[in-house]
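Question (not urgent): is this output format expected?
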Amino acid sequence: MLRMEATGGAVELAAFLARHPPFDSVGATALDAIAEGSVLERFAEGELVLDAFRDPTVEVFVVIEGHVQLWNNADTRLEGPDEVVSPGGMFGFSAMLTERSIGPRAVAAGAVLVARIPAALAAPVFTSSRGARFLAEMVSSARRRVPAAAAPTYMLVDDLIVRPPLVVDPDLPIGEVARRMTADGGPAAVPLGDGRFGLVTDAVLRTRVLLGADQPGSPVRSIVDTSAPVAVLGDSAAEAHMLILDRDAEFLLVTDRDGELRGVVAPRDFAVSPTAAGMSVHEQLRRAATVEDLACHATDIPTMLDDLLSNGLASGRVIAVYSSVVDTLVRRALGFVFARHPELSVDAFTWLSLGSNGRREAVLSSDVDSAAAFDGPVPEDGIAGYRAAFGEVYDVLAQAGLSADDHGATARHALFARTNDEWRAAGREWMAAPEAHNGAMMTSLLVDGRPIHGDPGLPAVTQVFGDLRRHPGTMRLLLQESLSKRAKLRSMRHILSRRPDTFDIKAHALVPVVNIARWAALSVGSAALPTVERLRAAAGSAMLPDEQAGTLIEVFGVLQRLRLRYQLMQHAVGDRPSDLITMSRMSSIDRSVIAQAVREISAVQRRMDNVAQYVPTKEWASR
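Got this back:
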């Protein structure tokens, strides 16, 4: 073995690593340190390089010359290799990052020169966002070659927490916190009150203390970073992975439902999660260089959803992941279109997702509803130019397989692209006279709005609806509108057309629940968007007692699971996913589940009708 102590050798290795990911994103100083601390080792043909099934490795291996055969499944050692690693390729990182004996077994295929990089030098490379994305792609390709049973099955963010977090008092001196961080080997969390936490990381210490003006004796509260994203125990690893990548964050805080800090997760902790395979699709969409690339990568989305569902991720969370992917498609489409129009500013507006994607409940059949809110005055002819560009955005989305609302609820139409002042004025008109100008319908659309581009603060129109409870007449009309879509097994149209065997799971079951939840949330002043969260927020009110709210939560979850499963089946056989289900093709159990769900929803609707008739409006939200 030859340690890279000679200056020439270290320089040569650093130059080699700089040409291969993920080291190609590392700065020159860090690369020099990695090269100087690495060991070069030669192996003859057939010689064992690594057996990480037997012992977890504390090194990452990079092939410099020759080829290395890898076995990624401990049960197939007598069979041919799962893959062959060429110069520039890397192995051993999953075992090193997780400190678990999860493979691979590596054998030299001919004469081989390998660089062995110690964990202390290699690990920081994977904590960067670029390193996390590299891991996602590596795990994705590995899972296509290895049986699912061979990979660890982390599905919740809970499973990624490997040790308790280091929590320090806000008044502790910075120097003492640095000492404890060195001993613990990770960042320090600082409670800030009201369930909030800040982080002190090596990067914070370097910029604020070593290179800044802060003194080691100052209280640590003065340097904490409060930008770290937060996940909650029970959240899926897929959602957490997207969150940390979207924010380009160094760490993710994990709390329990009571706001108690339970762990700190880094990008590298997602290394062997099967959700990383799905996240590679997300990253490919984010980095698509052309519209054609975007459309090509979008074809992998249904397979990603099927994989997540098959690996045990709850259907509601799979649907939330899909909604996040749709957000990424929209943002990328906006980027492509506005790059063609330098005369238009991509920062002049906030883009709101409406409808199911606004509620994070989109499925493969969902339309992409939207609205745009412009900050400050924009000339009418100027807005016209933006609307035309928004039309091009939808052309890009169509190439990626996403459809627009047939009824025109998109930012390319004048009704859904206005200045904040115009939205505010319109919202007040709808509240004052909801029967005019489709006020009830517009209100229902806009209260589902979720900003995904531009100012993350709520646009003016959604702020107006915060006072909706003070308008009892409007609330009564909105309730009537919400209950107008009745849950039923068969529509009269299907009966008259002699097609009673089909069931529209969206129109005749899910929409009634969504409408009830939206109205109930407004009645108690809740700003929640997802249907289940809205039902929980309104549970216990006069209009929606706990029992009825619980029933609707359960029914909604069951229906969404069926809907997603059958749409993935439709896609698998080459059909366009839709909400129309042929009952004869369903199992008897699924048919029974749908029938029972419709009865439960109908019962809640009838009760709400009765309460609306006999209970004063001002008491509807009482608990």
